[in-house]
What does this fold into?
Amino acid sequence: MQGKTFTMELAGKTLTIETGKYCEQAGGSAFVRMGDAVVMVNATVAKQPRDGVDFLPLSIEFEEKMYSVGKIPGGYIKREGRPSEKAILCSRLIDRPLRPLFPKGFYNDIQVIATVLSMDPDVQPEILGMIGSSAALAMSEAPFAGPTGAVAVGMVDGRYIINPTLEERHKSKLNLTVAGTKDAVMMVEAGANELSEKEMLDAILTAHEEVKKIVAFIEGIAAECGKPKMEVNIYHPDEAFTELVREYARDKVEWQLDTFERKVREERSEQVKQEVIEHFAEEYPDSAGDIDMILYNLTKEIVRDKIINRKIRPIWSEVGILPRVHGSGVFTRGQTQVMTIATLAPLSEGQELDGIDDVTFKRYMHQYNMPPYSVGEVRRVGSPGRREIGHGALAERALVPMLPSEEEFPYAMRLVSEVISSNGSTSQASICASTLALMDAGVPIKKPVAGVAMGLIKDDSTGNIAVLTDIQGLEDFLGDMDFKVAGTREGITAIQMDIKIKGIDEQILTRALEQARRGRLFILDKMAETIKEPRADLSPYAPRIMQFSIHPDKIREVIGSGGKTINGIIAATGVKIDLEDDGRVFIASPDAEAAAAAKRMIDDICRDIEVGGVFLGKVVNILPIGAQVELKPGKKGLVHISRLANHRVEKVEDEVQIGDEILVRVIAIKPDGKIDLTRKELLPDAKK
It folds into this structure.
């Protein structure tokens, strides 16, 4: 079948979208190429709404195929299994700018599947997935109010780079993804190394200029290849009945919302709903569903009207609450409370990553858990969902720029944030709690990091806006924006912005970033009252890691045949030893003396045996003419009986026994490799 191919130039690279040749039964299909990267995106929408749902059932799947990088999956099954964390995060990236662009009340299932078919290290496949999903939906019959476009932005030597290459990404102090329509920004996600608010704003606006070009490109494709959009029949309760319910229930809803206690508010909400249903039950017996919808809209209206005058939630924190862990911190803001625990380990216990990305190892792992009791609910406890993985990744991005280098602090670090109470931005609270836990653990972070969640209320009738600092759960749910900003006193380290309306402009972005900066500084001051800087010493339960280097040619000698030598050192000292290919050695042990003993053994193995060298060797054999001493694994020398002491020795066993460790000096290395040793001059003159 002959398809159609469209191309545009995007930041010096050719972006190609092909449609109509493959996947003809999908609602909309886009075969997206840039360089050697190929991502196939298919979008399909159900003909009828799903029964019993009151939300948009949009499903995004980002599939990483190992064949795209010429690999066979590991393990026994040899096929791709559950999505990696990177794939889950990419799915979230695709979802967030699309979701607000479907009509409210549209409940048909929509599925978008982006499959990475070929990888190019210089092209980020998630960007192609975001562009392809917009194109596929724009061409499908789905009532999509797009299209959207997306780009990545880096910053190298003060210059913004659109869709940076792998080398540029490694040099960049900014990793930014921006998606939007031709009119406004819809989604922002970034990790940065202390960018100023002005630098971040300029980066977002620079990205949006490129987004506009992509949107125009997709509009042209949809105009030529798109299907007619399906009719949308959205149910609304009868207007007269709606007014009756609103008039009767307004005072009750006002009372329902007149509390900052989440549990009390939820109890009142259920009480109000039952009272209203009972009031109208006789005249309108089947109106419970309509009443639920009307009360939701009335609640949203009242909350949005009152939201600006809410109280600031109190903040408190503490550290060192768990005696045996390596570091712990609790951050509380109102009814949001997160406990983070830090665990330190040798670098070898970092996370190996098996995927299509160029990153294969992480020494810093941040994990986020939100059990049902944190919101007063009872439900099944299972594996972390996409939300939990996304929040953990956001906290990780915020803290990584402030971590000490591997050379300065040769540890793997695992931070686990346990949300123990939730009524607000738990992801930002987890950043604050993690900073506290890292400092409590004695990790020499460069600067403390804090995060704050911003919100937005926009009046469509007047255009007036209110940007809110420190939003709570209800404000997030009923507001128009969730804008999370984390950083130090000097600058931003992470951003995540989701918009529930059709985008925001430069004015709103500028205002939100400045309010976030002030809120962040306030939180950092509060955290400093608990702990100002990292503790000078590690927890006594944390391993001490000694780091040094040997010549790479000596690694084989240290390991020994079949690992015999290094395993012998580990067995003798009880330490953990990691060897890197470049000759770096890491010895981990809570016992400093044991670590020092292991280092001496390794140093002895690595020393070249030369005439005049002194060694602490072990007697391994007794002969009539002297004692054989092992200087290092596989290297033995002979101390002649005449050189065992500063006096005449009648019998070797009178001076040494097998297993004794004695100091010896090399006095000769013969052409056949045999080594002559002496013990004289290394002993006191008098016999013991």
